[in-house]
């Protein structure tokens, strides 16, 4: 069980004109600070890896002073800096949503995960991966919107193409990150801001019509998709799949990140079925075959997938034949 020790700092309400010499200092002072001591060998970058959309992600950066992540909250945008020293995690947050975002950091780093009930069994690959990845904890952000937007952008396109559109969208519609965040960081756009983006702006970002319509559909009901409280993976998936343009793959990708669901598998992924099949059985397979291979770990199937992905590229099948070519929708 993690040992938590929170030390909160409430800043006094001070209003100064932008030209005042104290304005810069106050802007750089965090609105929320806390420390936390996990009870396991924490790997911050490993926990946050599922939330990173490429090396140039404007919403998640590794800098000299720590790992930075931007997020939306019910109170507004926020920037969070996470540093680790002496086994203690230090959290600092800026922006209107600083308190909500800062308090969510233990969940981001796996504090709500319960890996104690997982048994790797007799499968040598899974047992070895589990032994070598004692740091692995499933991240839970509690924010559907932040996971849903990039998941929609990743529908039926290459990873490189999806990450490029994500960067373009944040530059177009995302707010600058609050506080002294690294240059170029942006907060994911709100649902209202997404609805305000015009068709020609979407085209300039390189987004095709199908994903554009799906984004507008989820933005119109975004407030009803946040889990609240403990949340329920099956209920959230049903709500998501009721929206035009959102299928089982997108819903799975969202609940994995929003709720840290240990069992939901991304059925329909172009590569995942073969990675799992090659790792567990030494052969390629389809989605049904992947689920059959993962059945012994029902309840923790997504955990097994994460273990396999954390095991490195050596577990992937050999690549043969032409690669899937990205389509630049800006030129169509």
UniProtKB/TrEMBL annotation:
Entry keyword DNA damage: yes
Residues covered by region (Disordered): 312-332
Tagged with keyword Cell membrane: no
SUPFAM superfamilies in the cross-refs: DNA-glycosylase
InterPro entries in alphabetical order: Alkylbase_DNA_Glycosylase/TA, DNA_glycosylase
Superkingdom, taxonomy of origin: Bacteria
GO biological process terms on file: base-excision repair, AP site formation; DNA alkylation repair
MF (Gene Ontology): alkylated DNA binding; DNA-3-methyladenine glycosylase activity; DNA-7-methylguanine glycosylase activity
CC terms in the record's Gene Ontology section: cytoplasm; protein-DNA complex
Keywords, in A-Z order: DNA damage, DNA repair
PANTHER family linked: DNA GLYCOSYLASE, DNA-3-METHYLADENINE GLYCOSYLASE
Name under which the protein is recorded: 3-methyladenine DNA glycosylase/8-oxoguanine DNA glycosylase
């Amino acid at each position: 069980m993690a040992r938590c020790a929170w030390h909160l700092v409430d800043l006094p309400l001070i209003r100064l004109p932008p030209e005042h010499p104290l304005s810069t200092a106050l802007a750089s002072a965090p609105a929320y600070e806390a420390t936390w001591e996990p009870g396991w060998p924490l790997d911050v970058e490993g926990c946050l890896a599922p939330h990173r959309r490429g090396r140039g992600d404007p919403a998640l950066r590794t800098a000299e002073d720590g790992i930075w992540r931007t997020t939306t909250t019910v109170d507004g945008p926020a920037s969070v800096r996470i540093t680790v020293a002496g086994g203690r995690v230090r959290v600092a947050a800026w922006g209107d949503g600083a308190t909500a975002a800062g308090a969510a950091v233990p969940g981001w780093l796996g504090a709500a995960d319960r890996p104690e009930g997982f048994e790797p069994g007799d499968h040598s690959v899974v047992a070895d991966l589990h032994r070598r990845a004692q740091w692995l904890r499933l991240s839970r952000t509690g924010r559907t919107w932040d996971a849903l937007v990039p998941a929609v952008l990743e529908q039926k396109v290459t990873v490189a193409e999806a990450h490029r559109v994500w960067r373009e969208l944040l530059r177009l519609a995302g707010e600058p990150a609050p506080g002294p965040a690294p240059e170029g960081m942006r907060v994911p756009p709100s649902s209202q801001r997404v609805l305000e983006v015009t068709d020609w702006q979407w085209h300039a970002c390189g987004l095709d019509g199908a994903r554009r319509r799906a984004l507008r559909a989820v933005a119109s009901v975004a407030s009803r998709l946040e889990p609240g409280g403990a949340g329920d993976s099956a209920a959230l998936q049903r709500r998501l799949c009721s929206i035009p343009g959102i299928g089982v793959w997108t819903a799975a990708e969202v609940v994995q990140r929003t709720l840290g669901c240990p069992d939901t598998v991304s059925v329909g992924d172009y590569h995942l079925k073969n990675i799992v099949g090659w790792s567990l059985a030494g052969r390629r397979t389809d989605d049904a075959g992947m689920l059959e291979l993962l059945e012994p770990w029902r309840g923790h199937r997504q955990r097994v997938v994460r273990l396999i992905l954390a095991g490195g590229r050596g577990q992937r099948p050999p690549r043969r034949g032409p690669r899937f070519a990205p389509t630049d929708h800006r030129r169509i």
